[in-house]
Amino acid sequence: MPITRRIFMKNGAMAIVGASTIPSFLTRSVFAQAAAAQAQGKKLVVIFQRGAADGLNIVVPHREQDYYRLRPTIAIQPNQVIDLDGFFGLHPSLQPLKPLWDQRHLAIIHACGSPDPTRSHFDAQDYMESGTPGVKSTTDGWLNRALQAEALRNGKASAFRAVALGPQLPRTLQGKVPAVALNNLRDFSVGEQNPTAVPIATSFETMYADSVNAVLHGTGTETFEAVKMLKSADPGKYTPAPGANYPNGPFGNSLRQMAQLLKANLGVEAAFADIGGWDTHQNQGNVNGQLAGRLTEFSEGIAAFWTDMGNEAENIVLVTMSEFGRTVHQNGTGGTDHGHANIMFVLGGPVQGGRVYGKWPGMKPEQLYEGRDLAITTDFRQVLGEAAYRTIGAKKLDLVFPGAQLTPNRFLNILRA
């Protein structure tokens, strides 16, 4: 595989292709010691459900009779719902999240989303990741700007301050603040000891040292030292905490590696992962089927991550989002089409959970958006803005979400101040 400059330099960020599974001994390096003070603060984790998840079958309004009228074969029946508050309930595949709700670590926001009316996956994801609905000219992501708006902890920047679990940097983290994309240590090699791996590190050191130093504002050398240390770690060495049973597949693997990365005390402040497969136009199913399978993987992964983090979970806020919801009516092929309002989950130690936030708009014909969708009553930027403000200290909300006129008095107060 030829190594090109584009692999390392994309949208002002560094992507270390194929690196992951940070060993605990990395905390003893000079680089990690310099970042240790940063790692003591709160961390913000963002999970993107790509494909437009069906919020109505994820958090079910089981006391809403129109829900059952509009979804005669795919609705989750009242006796199948995991009841939350007498009106809303979880899809039964979300059982792993119920203890977190009971412990008030999990909050739900219903009828939220982007005010832009697009039903295009590409545009809607772009708008939510940029944080500027309807504006195509935005060049960076809201989470990168949130880190720009934060007063740097301890006056030092860790090369692992912003990380994405995956092969490339997501739109959310692109921008002026250096960010790192991490995938899998098994595909990584320093030098030529492993002829089947991608020999990135040699090229990184000899060909791109100056560029990386410039991008990372002087941390390029330390980063390379950290990368070299990864090579000597056994990818199978890490053992999750007891009871942290990650599901098989890319999502479970991403969260497992994210937990390991956060535990390594590398100065991570913001982390990102995604999970696809939510575009259920056909054969969506109800308690079984396509959506149920996605939700099982989703909930098991998040629950395992929470368990794995142990006491450190108290300093983590995890937010989930999807580009838009799905139609209130089921279609002729047993699925749902592109909709509007959706749900978001917020999980963490500082969360005031055990509650569904937001105003329920109703599902009667006159209450629907364009006669077909659940109406939005909460702008997704209110949720993300509060998370960024109260977790990583992004006080300049006009920088994070330009044009949103977002101030703390518009927060839903999901997180303790």
Describe this structure in words.
This protein has 417 residues and is α/β, with parallel strands linked by helices. The protein folds into two domains: 1-21 and 151-266, no CATH class; 41-136 and 269-417. Helix content is 29%, strand content 13%. It is built from 14 helices and twelve strands. It has helices at 5-8, 30-39, 55-58, 65-70, 98-102, 121-130, 142-148, 200-207, 209-215, 220-231, 250-263, 290-309, 380-391, 397-400, and strands at 43-49, 59-61, 82-83, 88-90, 106-113, 162-165, 180-182, 270-275, 316-322, 342-348, 355-357, 378-379. Strands 1, 5, 6, 7, 8, 9, 10, 11 and 12 form a nine-stranded mixed β-sheet that branches. Helix 11 (250-263) runs parallel beside helix 12 (290-309). It is globular, with a radius of gyration of 21 Å. The termini are far apart.
Summarize the structure.
The chain has 417 residues and is an alpha/beta fold. Helices cover 29% and strands 13% of the residues.
